Amino acid sequence: MSDTNTAGKKTLQVRLVKSVAGTRESHRATVRGLGLRKLNSVSTLEDTPSVRGMINQVSYLVKVL
Question: What's the pTM value of the predicted model, to 2 decimals?
């Protein structure tokens, strides 16, 4: 699930696997906050509690690689 980069910080890769059309505005904002734009786009994020919470909120839209 998570990789370790050279700096020793844990990272997560998240992919948008479902369209945000028809979802709540707050969930769309969360997806944008995760750095995801189009379907199947991938974002590499630092593994922090706030990022985990964002992923948990929109877990039905994203997949952690």
Answer: 0.84
